[in-house]
Every structure is written in structure tokens, then in C-alpha cells.
Amino acid sequence: MNNSKKGFIPVMLTPFNNDGSIDYKTLTALTELYLKSGVTGLFANCLSSEMFELSEAERLQVTKHVVDVVAGQVPIVATGTFEGTISEQADFTKKIYGTGIDAVILISGLLAKETDSDAVFVDNVHQLLDLTPGIPTGFYECPVPYKRVLTAAQLEDFVNTGRVIYHKDTSLDINQIKAKLSVVKNPEFGLYDAYMVHAIESLKAGSAGLSCIQGNFFPELIVWICDNYNDTSKKEELAAVQQFLESNMGVMHDVYPIVAKYALQKRGLPISNFTRREVGDFSPIVKYAVDQLQTEYDMLQNELSF
User: Fold this and answer.
1) For residue 253, what are the CA distances in angstroms to 37, 39, 109, 245?
2) What class of enzyme is it (predicted)?
3) CB atoms closer than 10 angstroms to residue 87
């Protein structure tokens, strides 16, 4: 999932009705909002989607719904590995690939126990690839159930199979990213960075794009970064955007994804604050912080004129 243009692949939210059922009408509207903002792909059925709180059937239904709405406009990836043996994970990988997505994402922390060695992890990955012939895949260093960060050598090995075209990096380490990019030469492969603190530096180092929760607040802003990161005439604007994102990282992570859903409400999306995850209290203080965030963003948006 790479091309000459840097791109933004948002980690999609799952809208719910207030009774906890999935709100497919709003999922359609949310998908269309992402597309209108200029994204170059979508990551459905991910941690932001509350994938661990969805049933297997719901994971498939949500992903298929997104595929149907997008109708080929941009590539779509979705998680395919959850609890169970490697064989069981391979079975679901096949099922979710059958929804019409472009690649199945493998969660590094679910392909080996936290106490397992790197050798066990690598063996399990190759076993899963052998059990899912012909299916394009990618990796996500998801923090749940624990974060297993791939080394550059591991990523090189996996990409060299010809089966791995995507990597969502959550190492939070620009040197790790540069090391990975230095050894992976497949033009079909793209590394997407989740950490906004070094977003611009990562793009300049060769990352294919960004995949971050901030895009569930202001997707157009992340698209703007990808479009302008290397424009020397916009050096001051880029510095202002970077500062805005760094200064407000705490606000955007607090009781997430509720805060993101509330922020989307403020821009007119009819999405409920309901979440199946236990994330804490959406208190008046948190609400006020998001209101202030929106005010700051509006000012920034006027300065950038996009």
C-alpha cells in the first residue's frame, strides 16, 4: 500500500446507537466524511473501532459495510488476527479478506505471548502466512493486549515473503522507523506512522504516510500534513501544526474514543458518544477541553486556509 503520494489512512471509529448496537447509517456518513477529507486508505476493524468489543460477526459486518460504501475509491485494510491458535487466526484472516478488503492486518501482540521469544514470534508469523496463501497482509504494533514492536530485521524478513504490504508503526521512535525504512525495498510496501510528535520527520525519512487517532478529530489536517510536509514555503505553518498536535495530544487521548466521537458531533456528524470500552468518565472538564481544542483548531484552519 504505497504510492508516490504520501497518504493518510485513518483508524476508523465504530458508531453505536445508544442501546449499544452498531449504527450503520452513521458508519456510512463517517466513511464518507473520511473520503471527503482526502484520505488515501482506511483501516477498518482496528483498536479505534473497538474491535475487541465486537463479536466475530460484527467485525465482518462492519468491515463489509465499509467496503461497500467505499466501492473501490481507496484501499481498505482490516484486522484479521484475534485470540486463538495460529490456525484459528488464519481462518478468520481468510474470512475477513473475503469481505473485499485489500490487505489483512496482523496484530503483532497476538501472534506470540509476551513471554515468547522473537524466534517463536517469527515462526508463528511464517506459519500464518503459509496457512493464508495469496492474501496480502500487514502489521500493526497494537498496544493491546501488549505492544510487540517489530525489529527492522523482522520486518525485512516478512516483507521479503512478498506478502506484506503495510505496516502501522507505533514504536514512537524515529530511529526505529528509519532503520525499518532502510532495509525494506519493496515498492508495494508502505510504512504508516502513528506518532504525531515526529510526523513530519517520519514523512521526510520515507514513511508512506500517517495513521493516527488525531485523524478522527481533524482528518483534513492530517491530509494537509501529508500533502505539504516537504514544502519549504510552508515551514512556519508546518511548525504551527506540529505544535498544535503535540500540545493537544493529552486532550485527544483522554477517554478516547468518546472524545473523538464528541468532536465529530461538533462538526455535524450524528454520532453517539456511546462506547463499549471502559475508558473513564466523559466529565464536564474533559468536554470543555475538547471544546477548547475545536476553537484552537478553527483558528489554525483559518491560518492554513484549507
Assistant:
1) 22, 21, 21, 11
2) lyase
3) 10
What is the DSSP annotation of 120-142? HHHHHHHHHHHHSTT--EEEE--
Say if CB 216 and CB 11 are below 8 A apart.
yes
Q: How far apart are CA 14 and CA 28, in angstroms?
A: 10
Q: Is 50 helix (H, G, I), strand (E, B) or coil?
A: coil
Q: How far apart are CA 5 and CA 78, in angstroms?
A: 22
CA dist., res. 252 & res. 223, Å (int):
18
**Total count of residues recorded for the chain:** 306
Record the pTM: 0.95
Convert the pLDDT of each residue in 5-22 to its tens digit: 789 999 999 999 999 999
Query: What are the grid coordinates assigned to 118, written together?
Result: 522473537
Measure the CA angle with vertex 160, ends 155 and 158; round to 5°. Answer: 35
Q: What does the alpha-carbon distance between residue 82 and residue 280 come to, in Å, rounded to a whole number?
A: 25
